[in-house]
Design brief:
alpha+beta, 34% strand, globular, 388 residues
Length: 388
């Protein structure tokens, strides 16, 4: 058996695999091979000419402290039953890391079927959302009724993209959607029966909402706004559906503060662990990390990463007024030592130094350095609303 890139001839095999492994409909699988599958983004585990397992690597740019960096989104990892327990998926993941490294990706993320499985190969929890379960009456009185709403479609992509980027740039991990990404998002809406409305003031799009209505429930898929008052108008729009729905289900960003705006804030809010993150290239991540301007100093970081030998080393960091020089010094004891999972969370901003040390996954050998690191590596809010 061998691992190699897929070809156009594998379309039917990929479609059949999507249907079988993910219990998807023929319509869904056909959409996948027509709109998502690209041979250059799919590697397969082949038994002769037979495709036994497959993994897709989607090339994205993500926001990272306001900048954009390359990220490989891993998805649709599937293995036929006769090839399970043959380490097909494991082998594909390890090969995918090499491919992403060669492509220049800094991070990788994925939606796990099992956190424990992907954790074994270096991915770790990097996102969570705040899920609201509200009553429609909770939104009575929101907004002013100024402005106007209208359906939005493919012709509105440039306007949607402008609003989305201003919102998403403040979150680590949000996809920087190009035109192709946007077209796919809207095609998925058509496939899944979602509605799309934009909010305008003075002829300018200021926010939008994607949603579906089902069983007297209003499911918010994406709610994006340019400023707080626009958010209130969008929530007012949701209330316009009070004759059609009684409840609202919304997985908002982790830092969303809507509950503070409710007359009765004693509504269900749940912490929903979401996607996993991984450093593909630790040195690049350190080089693009926004070190504070008011810190100058040097220290070493030692990383354990048995699946990616280019990360399984120690790095010396010389930092001066926000600028950093990162040098690979080989596998030597570091002032800071941790697993690739912990370092991925920390550099991505999902956890800070304090959480990393308190959970026993990061060792800092000097108290003074520990105090400095708390200033250097600060938590950030992560958010992603794209699936792959």
């Amino acid at each position: 058996m061998e691992i190699r890139f897929a070809t156009e001839r594998d379309k039917k095999a990929i479609k059949d695999m999507i249907i079988y492994c993910f219990s998807r409909t023929d319509r869904y699988a056909q959409f996948f091979v027509d709109n998502i599958f690209k041979p250059e983004n799919c590697i397969g585990y082949y038994d002769g000419e037979r495709l036994g397992a497959a993994l897709h690597i989607y090339p994205f740019e993500i926001f990272f402290y306001g900048k954009t960096v390359p990220m490989g989104g891993v998805g649709s990892v599937a293995t036929l039953p006769e090839y399970r327990h043959c380490r097909c998926a494991s082998s594909l993941l390890i090969e995918a890391l090499k491919i992403m490294k060669d492509r220049g990706d800094v991070f990788s993320s994925l939606i796990p079927f099992s956190f424990a499985f992907y954790r074994k190969y270096g991915w770790e929890l990097g996102f969570h959302r705040k899920e609201y379960n509200l009553l429609m009456e909770d939104l009575r009185g929101f907004g002013t009724g100024k402005g106007s709403f209208r359906p939005v479609d493919f012709d509105d992509i440039p306007k949607l993209a402008k609003v989305y980027e201003s919102f998403a740039r403040s979150y680590n991990g949000a996809i920087c959607r190009n035109n192709e990404n946007w077209e796919l998002v809207l095609k998925k809406h058509e496939r899944d029966g979602l509605y799309r409305y934009g909010y305008e003031e003075g002829g300018e799009l200021k926010g939008y909402i994607f949603y579906r209505l089902e069983d007297k429930k209003f499911y918010i898929s994406e709610l994006i706004y340019s400023e707080a008052k626009v958010k209130a108008e969008l929530l007012r729009f949701v209330y316009y559906h009070s004759a059609q729905a009684d409840e609202i289900i919304w997985q908002a960003p982790a830092d969303d503060n809507t509950f503070l705006m409710l007359d009765n804030p004693r509504r269900e809010q749940r912490f929903i662990p979401n996607m996993m993150i991984r450093l593909v290239d630790a040195q690049k991540a350190l080089e693009v990390y926004p070190f504070p301007q008011d810190y100058s100093g040097s220290f070493t970081i030692s990383i354990d990463d048995p699946w990616a030998q280019w990360n399984n080393t120690s790095f010396e960091l010389d930092i001066e007024e926000g600028h950093v020089r990162v040098k690979d010094i080989g596998k030597k004891p570091g002032d800071v030592h941790g697993s690739i999972q912990c370092l991925s969370q920390m550099l991505f901003g999902y956890i800070g130094i304090k959480e990393a040390v308190e959970t026993g996954r990061l060792e800092v050998r000097d108290l003074k350095l520990y105090e400095s690191l708390q200033h250097i590596f600060k938590p950030a809010t992560t958010f992603v609303n794209d699936t792959y």
